Description:
Blueprint: H1 2-10, H2 13-18, E1 24-27, H3 32-38, E2 46-49, H4 54-59, H5 69-74, H6 77-88, E3 104-108, E4 115-120, H7 130-142
Parallel strand pairs: 1-2
Antiparallel strand pairs: 3-4
Amino acid sequence: xxRAEAHQLYCRKPIFDALGVQLFAVLHEHIxxxxxxxxxxxxxxxxxxxxxxxxxxxxxxxxxxxEKFLSGFLLNPRALSNYKRAKDxxxxxxFKGEGEIKGxxxxxGSGKSGIAYQFIERNFGDWAPLAEVIEICTQMQIx
Length: 143
C-alpha cells in the first residue's frame, strides 16, 4: 500500500516544486526487484535507504512501530479498507519483504526550524491527508 500513497503524493510533485518543497521516499529495506518496481513507476524522485531504520524509529518515539500481519491487517477493518482503496487505484501490490513496520511522513522546515508536521501510520495503509500536507507546506512559505 505504500506504493499507492507514494504515487498519489508524487503525482502532486509540481505543487511541491512550486512551493520549494523537496520530496524524498525513505525505504527501510533493500530488495532489488522491489526498488526497481517502485522507482520510477510509483515514485520518480529521490529514494533513500534507511539501513538503521532511524526514520521509522523516530516515528515511534525511538522504537519501530510494528504490528503482526494477522492482527494488524487481516483482523483490522480499517487496514482492509485501506487495502481496498489502494487496490481500487489499480496499484500493483504484493506481500514481499518485511511487512510489519509502519511508516509515516515528516515535513521538515528549512534551517533549524525542525519538524513542521508529522503523520504516523496507525493502521496499515493509512495516508497523510494530502490537503493537510499541501496546506502545511504552503504555510511554511509564508514564514
